[in-house]
Design a protein that fits this description.
Elements: H1 7-15, H2 21-34, H3 38-44, H4 50-59, H5 65-71, H6 82-88, E1 91-96, E2 100-105, H7 111-121, E3 124-129, H8 132-142, H9 149-160, H10 172-179, H11 182-197, E4 202-208, E5 211-218, E6 221-225, H12 233-243
Parallel strand pairs: 2-3
Antiparallel strand pairs: 1-2, 4-5, 5-6
Helix pairs in contact: 9-11, 10-12, 11-12
Length: about 260
């Protein structure tokens, strides 16, 4: 079985008849044993010249380390938690306007990684190719450590004085602005990621007296999550609605 991170390279080498299936099997077997980078193994075994690999990448608009590091916009890193970037070996590069996020991946057909980022970022994804080694280098350089829930909640408290509970007649553009505030985006992203990792079946975000209650259901039992400030409840709910393509103006009827 070909590892996810090598699928593009394997498919390209076979399609271009650069190596034979037998040679590729030999290289993959060595990688399974040594866990070395597949490109390095191919070059070390003299199955492919380094110049040939470079040419293939260039033809496929491949981002090398230099171009990759030069493209990363630190602001868009907020849209993709470090845990997600490391798990799928991806890194967001830039955002075109409000909708299109350029994402460096090791396999253009990795629909799981692309769909995951589309869901948590709320953006359409333009995937570009980069090597596993170069993406890991970029992740190490640009992510200074994955924010935990406590850190994000501290950020929420800091901006709490600037975000008020929306009233019925509040301008929808203001609601969207608050829902896209970085601390709100981080909180919702981490909440969804935590729920997925713990195999939760559903998430409950409920207003309560003096606070907002957040719970996730695991194996039929509801577990409390450290709650955000109550004044952030509406912004968090609006963020979830935006990710779900729901009407943020509708607050009375279920959607």
């Amino acid at each position: 079985m070909v590892p996810e991170n090598n699928k593009w390279l394997v498919r390209t080498l076979l399609d271009k008849e650069v190596v034979t299936p037998e040679q590729l099997t030999q290289a993959l077997a060595r990688q399974k044993e040594t866990r070395e980078n597949l490109e390095k193994i191919l070059v070390d075994l003299r199955l492919v010249k380094d110049e040939k690999l470079t040419a293939l990448k260039k033809k496929e608009s491949f981002y090398d380390e230099k171009s990759l590091l030069g493209q990363v916009d630190p602001e868009v890193l907020k849209l993709v938690p470090e845990t997600v970037a490391r798990r799928y070996c991806i890194i967001p590069l830039s955002k075109n306007g409000k909708k299109i996020l350029t994402l460096a991946v090791t396999d253009l057909n990795d629909v799981v990684a692309i769909d995951t980022v589309r869901t948590i970022s709320g953006c359409e994804i333009k995937a570009v190719l980069a090597s596993e080694k170069d993406i890991i280098t970029a992740v190490e350089r640009y992510y200074s450590g994955s924010p935990d829930m406590e850190t994000v909640l501290l950020d929420l408290v800091k901006v709490n004085g600037h975000i008020v509970q929306p009233e019925t007649g509040e301008d929808l553009s203001e609601v969207k602005l608050k829902a896209n505030d970085p601390p709100v985006v981080k909180f919702v992203n981490l909440l969804l990621l935590d729920a997925v990792e713990r195999r939760a079946s559903d998430i409950h975000i409920e207003p309560a007296k003096g606070k907002a209650t957040v719970r996730i259901r695991i194996d039929g039992i509801l577990h409390d999550i450290t709650p955000p400030p109550k004044a952030m409840h509406s912004a968090i709910v609006s963020r979830v609605k935006i990710l779900s393509n729901l009407d943020i103006a509708e607050r009375r009827l279920p959607q």
